[in-house]
Specification:
single chain; about 600 residues; alpha+beta; Heat Shock Protein 90; Ribosomal Protein S5, domain 2; formyl-coa transferase, domain 3; 3 domains; nine-stranded mixed sheet; 22 helices
Length: about 600
Amino acid sequence: MPVRQLPETIVNRIAAGEVVERPASAVKELVENAIDAGASRIEIFTDGGGRRRITITDDGAGMTRGDLALAVERHATSKLDDEDLLRIRTLGFRGEALPSIGAVARLGITTRHANEPHAWAMSVDAGAKSAIAPAALTHGTRVEVADLFYATPARLKFLKTDRTEGEAIREVVRRLAMARPDIAFTLAGEERSPVTWAAALPGAPGQLTRLGDILGTDFRASAIEVRSGRDGVSVEGFAAAPSLTRANALGQYLFVNGRPVRDKLILGAVRAAYADYLPRDRHPVVALFVTLDSQEVDANVHPAKTEVRFRNAGLVRALIIHALKEGLAREGRRTAANGGGAVLSSFRPNIPPRGGWDWRNSPSYPTTAAAETRDDFVQGFAEVAQSGFDVGAPSADVRFEQGPAPELIDKPLGAARTQIHETYIVSQTRDGLIVVDQHAAHERIVYERLKASLERNGVARQILLIPEIVEMDEATVEKLLAQADELERFGLAIESFGPGALAVRETPSLLGKTNAAALLRDLAEHMAEWDEALPLERRLMHVAATMACHGSVRAGRILKPEEMNALLREMEVTPNSGQCNHGRPTYVELKLADIEKLFGRR
């Protein structure tokens, strides 16, 4: 078959396949054009998931008659001052969005520049361009797209339902609105009420206002400001406290020079920064803005410009991790899931919707007719009801003759008052009470000690007088021996003791007496999830976390009052004490005002 030049209409449709994958892609390109035009207000209207109609109206600079004629031509753009593709200072620059959309749909553009006496309009129908004609428009640009992909029916078969395509458009607009809080956005159509995000004030307060409007009040309440910078690269934004998480990474919004992106490097850095705070199956909610010189990042990696490539990727990753860790450490008390509506709702009784509590609904209410007619039952508590108040003796004697010590009650975690179920410490503060999970709290303390010891001069170890022999299957033994050097850095010295057995000769002194067999089995389970790409630092932290779990106070151990208070004081000076190293909260806090609300005192 001879080589031939493809017609311009076919070339444009091929280009549309790269740039306009679905209606949301068209919305993204058109809204980015409006942002680059200096708009302060952008209105988006869609119908039929965007396939029937898309209308983008802005109050930007608009175009002259000559610019409008060139705007629908291939590879024509106003966003490059020269031919240097490494100096990209705008969102759109490829010069393919408008001709690509016009090649597969009915495109109409009406625009007015400040230097023009009136507006101009033209249309493109499946690649066929109309003449430019005068039109009515006060200022800015209005772009209308109708019957998207009607010129390429095969593409229509791959589109999803109107609701799904509409949600994709909504997500695109949300991300662009987060990137530019100084611009007002309105999203309407799809048979739902319009959503408007008003323009916010400049700076971090305005940025948080816009993020709160989009991500919800929960994010605004738990948001922690993060900031870091070096060598011309700055990272800023807001990260939610570990108490607010998601089941996937879709709650992580990343922006590079104002451009929404999905970058594996940044996502990996976020995961590493939160590794000490969250369980493995939970993901944080963050909005991070990376700003750097345009020559230090390649934004032309993907046709849709959703991916970027950094010249100094290591620096960007380090700054993100530093910014997040510094912010989480600075707001250590807030990082705990220690209050809020979720805690209070768990204490509220299930009161019937009409009227108050009816004692006849109680499980203690007698079922026999004779009992129902007993006068003494009505006069006071029945025996069976009184048994509900028999909770047994406290597990630890922490009764104080004169109440809590004044010097302790003003501490952040207060003074220990009792221990319940040999697991939870109840402490009293000046304005509330705190319930501490003793095992989770001590686990974090041991973990931070291990990390600090490793960073200083290595973990102190104790030599066992008689080596402990641990029997396992041969595959597990080989797996542990392969990581023997990393384990030794934490003071755990192991060596082979024949087929299917290990000899433990040294253990970390910080753990005291420990069950070596159980510790090695847990370590083997964690190592099964490692891969070659996991950095050595993260591997060591996994080892430290497992060791800390085995070296901490176990649930079920009775503590003396001085032991409980000592644990509370250690928590107050330990970094990240709001969670254990598995991401579980170490304590919850109830303010006295909240308790009074529970009992109707407020």
